[in-house]
């Protein structure tokens, strides 16, 4: 069994209520995000790959365009734009196209991350 991880970066803004950070969190502010999508499987004997990375790249590029330089509060499908909900949002858009086992979303500048293992994880 093999695991393969692809990542992409995006810049986005959000505002979060109901935290102990108060105004710092409630005001619109931005972050640099990194998302990692890990797939698992056995390489195809013909291609030698778990998955054609070109197909995965297409999905991730579309996802990046959806998130990059956006105000995440306006993307209804995310819900409250937390790391938790972002990781689930990404999973939901990739899981039907790839054998995803985990999605991580990282805010390295804040030393924060969240990993989602799917609805049955």
Commentary on this structure:
Keywords: Lyase, Metal-binding, Queuosine biosynthesis, Zinc. It catalyses: 7,8-dihydroneopterin 3'-triphosphate + H2O = 6-carboxy-5,6,7,8-tetrahydropterin + triphosphate + acetaldehyde + 2 H(+). It holds the Pfam family PTPS. Its cofactor is Zn(2+). This protein is α+β, with helices and mostly antiparallel strands. It has a single domain, classed as Tetrahydropterin Synthase, Chain A (2-Layer Sandwich), CATH 3.30.479. Helix content is 26%, strand content 34%. It is built from three helices and five strands, in the order E-H-E-H-E-H-E-E. It has helices at residues 23-26, 53-67, 83-94, and strands spanning 2-14, 29-41, 70-71, 100-107, 112-116. A five-stranded mixed beta sheet has the order 3-1-2-4-5. The protein is elongated.
Summary of the model, kept short:
Its cofactor is Zn(2+). The protein has one domain: Tetrahydropterin Synthase, Chain A (2-Layer Sandwich). With 121 residues, it is an alpha+beta fold.
Can you give the mean pLDDT? 91
What is the number of helices?
Answer: 3
CATH topology: Tetrahydropterin Synthase, Chain A
Could you say which overall geometry the principal axes of the C-alpha atoms support?
elongated
Task: List unreliable stretches of 5+ residues.
Answer: none
Q: Biggest β-sheet, characterized? A: 5 strands, mixed
Question: Structural class per helix/strand content?
Answer: alpha+beta
- Beta strand %: 25-35%
The count of strands amounts to: 5
Top keywords for this entry?
alpha+beta, 5 strands, single chain, 5-stranded mixed sheet, Tetrahydropterin Synthase, Chain A, zinc, 26% helix, 121 residues
